[in-house]
Amino acid sequence: MIFGITGTNGGGKGTVVDYLRDEKGFTHYSVRDLIIEEVTKRGLPVNRIHIGDTGTALRREEEPAYFVNTFIDRAQETGAENIVIESIRTVAEARRIQELGGKIIAVDAPVELRYERITERGSATDHVTFEQFREQEDREYTAKDDSDPTQMSVLKVMDIADYVLINDGSLEELHKKIEEIL
To answer: What residues contact residue 130 under an 8 Å CB cut-off, 6+ apart?
Structure first.
């Protein structure tokens, strides 16, 4: 089984991944982590702009579904059958997962709750004002050029998701929603 996880910043993608990995034994692959490795190799500061630009560059240099195909290859090499790929940001990546029989899960929550979550988790890319948070979302959620399959377009990926989880309640409620999908 293959799940691709997409969604809004602070929506709860990582929490869904944690449940699938820790409670259901899925092997986890992170697009973001792979991009951060490349950002570091290129000697760039790790921030949302460089992560986004480097991800787009890698998709252009390799192929639009580069990250998904990389992780599928890794899963096949290790024999992993149930995998979850976190941070699906392009339609090409989502469509590739669906072509392979996988499902896309979109995770969302109200914007104020999402902003509260990211400020609490405090990762290196989360130290932003509410206005900066909204600007980041605008850059990632809609492609500047819809004909370019390498650009991030989270809202379009969410539109084609097989499942949408609204994560505005308790952790137990979210786990119940995941179980319903399973």
So the answer is: 115
pTM recorded for the entire structure: 0.91
Break the chain into its structural domains and give their ranges.
2-181
In CATH, what number does 2-181 get? 3.40.50.300
The residues, any chain, with a CB within 8 Å of residue 157's CB and separated by 6 or more, are 6, 88, 89, 90, 91, 93, 94, 104, 106
> Residue 179 and residue 19: Cα distance in Å, rounded?
10
Task: Give pLDDT tens digits for 109-160.
Answer: 999 999 999 888 766 566 788 888 888 888 778 888 888 888 888 999 999 9
Q: Residues with Cβ < 8 Å from 151, sequence gap 6 or more?
A: 56, 90, 143, 144, 145
